[in-house]
Amino acid sequence: MSSEQLQEFLNTAITLAKEVGPAFKDGFWRTGQFAASSDFAAEDKDGNQADCVTAVDCFIEKTIFARLRQIYPDHKFVGEETTAESGNGYQVTDDPTWIVDPVDGTNNFVHHFPYTGISIGLAINKQPVVGVIYLPILDELYTAAQGLGAFMNGQPLPLIRPPVLTTPLSLAQCSMVAEHGSARTPEVMKSRLDSFTRLLLGKEHGGACLQNLRVMGAAAPDLSLVAKGVAEIYWECGPHAWDFAAGVVLVLESGGAVFDGAGWWGSNVPRSERTPQPLNIWNRKIVAIRCIPDLPGKPGSGRELQKQLAAELLEIVEDIPYAPDGNQ
Questions:
Q1: Which of 50, 261, 276, 278 sits in a 20 to 30 Å window from 251, CA-based?
Q2: Is-above-0.90 flag for pTM?
Q3: Is 30 left (phi over 0), alpha (psi -120 to 50) or beta?
Q4: Listing from the earlier edge strand, what are the strands of the sheet with 117-124?
Q5: Helix-, strand-, coil-residue percentages of the chain, each rounded to 5
Q6: Mean pLDDT, rounded, of the chain
Q7: pLDDT for the residue numbered 55
Q8: Is 267:284 a contact under the CB 8 Å cutoff?
Q9: CB neighbours (10 Å) of residue 239?
Q10: pLDDT-based confidence at 40, cuts 50/70/90?
Q11: Nearest-CA neighbor of 317 among 199, 184, 222, 202?
Q12: Is the separation of the CB atoms in 118 and 24 below 8 Å?
């Protein structure tokens, strides 16, 4: 795929994100076309009170896909709301596939918390190559394409750069973003909270002594924090491809790294095989590490430290079983 083609795809995604921005703002503030409660129409998704969908989600997704189908009739399309309607039964192929979350962080959106936005990703050969995350309420537009860099409102990412951008040597020097997810069974909640506890416990108590853990309510903006350089790590089990496809491109193009997020705590994975594995965006488990500058006189050490931090994390978090997205 040429850089010219990728730039064209990126320009299309940017244009569409900006086009639906006014509808997003109307829904957030309950103005314009979404002024009446009946127009907004928030409801539980699939009977889960911890997850919801609004008329804004459906309107934005349908608008984006209608435009994309006009421009790229041979491409494939995966969206949160249309996929939910079809029961996750789509086929994952190597074809160019647009992956859209029309309102990432819908609970934030419903509760007027501005950490919510539109995520548009494009995968080719099952790998994300274009990503746009637009946070209309915060007026932040994140854009990236493979080999073309990552930007926020036109500024190169990460925004924080050496020497201000530090080189953490362990989780005890890191800030992490994560989510508690919408699966609220006792088993899932215990596993997730146990992992959070081990991350936060002091080292004298067998924990990693993570400096801080932020639960902000939306995967795409979480990944934008990693790309920006203001969070060292994002880890989660359970999000879907539409939650993080665009964000993965941002992280990689800003110098970060991404890995499979299945934890090793309590697992049968032999110690000799405990090395961070490549990310499969369809398997719903992810670790993302921000750009890490090389240590003085040690070229390549930043990349090694990204792997070390991912491994340190995976050693103390539990894997949570989730069915993969689509039919692979």
A1: 50
A2: yes
A3: left
A4: 76-79, 97-104, 117-124, 127-135, 140-145, 149-152, 155-156
A5: 40, 25, 40
A6: 92
A7: 86
A8: no
A9: 27
A10: low
A11: 199
A12: yes
